[in-house]
Write a structure and sequence with these properties.
By secondary structure, the protein is of the alpha/beta class. About 30% of the residues lie in helices and about 25% in strands. Bound molecules: adenosine-5'-diphosphate and magnesium ion.
């Protein structure tokens, strides 16, 4: 296994969508090993569709998807997960009637040699002490922030090499958003490769090493966060952020 391969995830000329509607057009992206790629774009730009394509939930009509250099484009979802991809879905999708502990136990782990660092219940509780205090509690009774921690913890239980996060800040308080940003930075520093899909540009720009901008299913910018924030045209045209309001 080429564990020192520098690109953790690559999309190469990906065209994909639903039935007869083509959503993603010729999308090329890459997430470097142990880094965060922020994928930004307005509602309906195709960010979630991109995650579905990577996870094998929708088929590609053209292009390729590679994890550490190996194509996963033709594999079913279970196989993609076994190869070390884990998803924190938009809207969290935790099992609200199951306890916190049960939510963390239902995960199918990635298979060696495709697994990343090994995660366990103890390690998740170490990262999220609040979950540890609520292991026996039904997940549906948790606060929004705690549910997001559970969704992240559940994905980590798969011991992934690459984590796909779909709008983890959605519906959270500024304080919880800062906490999510801190966790993402910590996971990256521990060696995880992360695709962070966000409408919250400020969060993504604060934590991402590189950013890509999706508009109408096409990549209209790829570069560093600084390159993006230094371009008032891009900031305004695709993110609706004016220079004065963007805090830069
Ligand atoms: N299951 C689906 N079937 C058909 N069209 C869909 C489906 N899900 C999303 N779309 C369409 O794909 C486009 C991109 O949606 P999505 O990937 O959810 O965008 P984003 O996550 O950036 O908000 C939208 O036009 C949306 O209506
Ligand atoms: Mg979405």
């Amino acid at each position: 296994m080429a564990t020192n391969y520098t690109l953790a995830l690559e999309l190469v000329g990906v065209t994909a969508g639903y039935d007869r509607s083509e959503i993603l057009r010729d999308v090329s992206l890459s997430v470097r090993s142990s880094s965060v790629l922020g994928l930004l774009g307005r509602n309906g730009a195709g960010k979630t569709t991109c995650i579905r394509a990577i996870a094998g939930m929708i088929r590609l009509s053209r292009g390729d998807i590679r994890i550490f250099g190996e194509s996963v484009a033709a594999l079913p979802v279970e196989e993609v997960i076994r190869r070390g991809i884990a998803v924190v879905p938009q809207g969290r999708r935790i099992f609200s009637l199951l306890t916190v502990k049960e939510n963390l136990a239902v995960v199918q782990p990635a298979c060696p040699p495709y697994a990343g660092q090994q995660w366990s219940l103890a390690r998740v509780v170490d990262l999220f002490p609040r979950l540890g205090e609520r292991l026996g509690q039904r997940a549906g009774t948790l606060s929004g922030g705690e549910q997001q921690m559970l969704a992240i913890g559940r994905a980590l239980m798969a011991s992934p090499r690459v984590l796909l996060m779909d709008e983890p800040s959605e519906g959270l308080s500024p304080q919880m958003i800062a906490e999510v940003a801190r966790i993402i930075g910590q996971l990256r520093d521990n060696g995880l490769s992360i695709l962070l899909v966000e409408q919250n540009s400020r969060l993504a720009l604060s934590v991402a090493d590189n950013v890509a901008l999706l508009s109408n299913g096409e990549v209209v910018f790829a570069g560093t966060a600084v390159q993006l924030t230094d371009d008032p045209h891009l900031m305004e045209a695709y993110l609706g952020l004016h220079a004065a309001a963007s805090g830069t």
